């Protein structure tokens, strides 16, 4: 690893080879003094166009006019001045971040940024758009752990060739109501959209569409896929297994993933949407607390010894939904196991500890995740389904509030 690569790995949230990225903005989460030797290497690898000082999403905005472009012809003195300006601005922004009003970026600009990132790694336009649309939707709905926060991981996989950004899923076996799909190691959103669209198509004729896929990758916000079914008036269900992060009840080593479950139900102008991990919390929530320098709640994670911890730096494994055994954490453990059965085992994909770690140590391997997508036509059942669903939502919302 070159000095340049080590610098990027330490300083940038995006740990991929930035020198490959042309004319896009790269965010920097931690800034330290830049040495002359590193500057010289940056000049030699100068395909970096803009380096933006961004702390989380507080300062995320297009700043191409604010900093000089770095090229092989740029003098060392100009580069040093540019980096000094970035560092000074970042320090001011970091000191003001907690007190100032949060700056927002437009949906279109966020989408453009992510599409350009994917295209810089050879991802076709239509695939880049699908993945970016999912990430933007997650941030827009408040699921910050599955939005821009996840872009780094996708780009790492693309740079290591452990994900094929141009791959197109293919059907291996099907019946009128079911399908078994090979994701061909493509982008998660591309595979997920393909599978849910296929499930919806089957549901229109058979009443139910059930699709399992192997050789998939991280597919983002699980609720994205049931929402596609809801637009057609169908009930949608989506599940995926993930890299092992959860320690089973009474264990201190990870053997299951966050293994989310998402269910979407239409109800006229209303709807019901559940999107939940079967761990106490998604990994991204702990990452955000770590970046903010804040503790995590009791019951989210445990340390290397298997004890519950509130220190995000000591978090070794996520705890099951419910937390400790005394708080019914074994139920979350059971749900996570069910997801792994219906996805990894049923699809012939990896499962449990067979799945790679989703970090710098595991990104050279293919994930081969298993996922499940279901669409159900409620008109095959009670004709008053929609009316009753609206009534259920109303009863839940109008429950007397707990004032304690």
Protein described:
The model is unreliable at 2-73 and 90-100 (pLDDT under 50). This protein has helices at 3-11, 36-44, 76-96, 107-120, 125-140, 151-159, 188-206, 224-231, 283-292, 329-347, 385-397; strands at 25-28, 50-53, 170-174, 178-182, 208-216, 235-240, 261-267, 270-276, 301-302, 308-309, 317-318, 369-376. α5 (125-140) crosses α7 and α7 packs parallel to α8 (224-231). The chain has eleven helices and twelve strands. A hairpin with a 2-residue loop joins β7 and β8. It has a seven-stranded mixed β-sheet, with helices on both faces. It is of the alpha+beta class and 404 residues long.
Extract low-pLDDT stretches: 2-73, 90-100
Q: Between the first and last Cα atoms, what is the distance in angstroms?
A: 56 Å
As a percent range, the share of strand residues is: 15-25%
Number of helices: 11
Structural class: alpha+beta
pLDDT averaged over residues? 81
Instruction: Describe the largest sheet.
Output: 7 strands, mixed
Instruction: Tell how many strands the DSSP assignment holds.
Output: 12
Helix content: 25-40%
Oligomer: single chain
Largest sheet strand order:
3-4-5-12-6-7-8
Q: Radius of gyration, rounded?
A: 23 Å
Quick description:
By secondary structure, the chain is an alpha+beta fold.
Helices and strands in order:
Blueprint: H1 3-11, E1 25-28, H2 36-44, E2 50-53, H3 76-96, H4 107-120, H5 125-140, H6 151-159, E3 170-174, E4 178-182, H7 188-206, E5 208-216, H8 224-231, E6 235-240, E7 261-267, E8 270-276, H9 283-292, E9 301-302, E10 308-309, E11 317-318, H10 329-347, E12 369-376, H11 385-397
Parallel strand pairs: 1-2, 4-5
Antiparallel strand pairs: 3-4, 5-12, 6-7, 6-12, 7-8, 9-10, 9-11
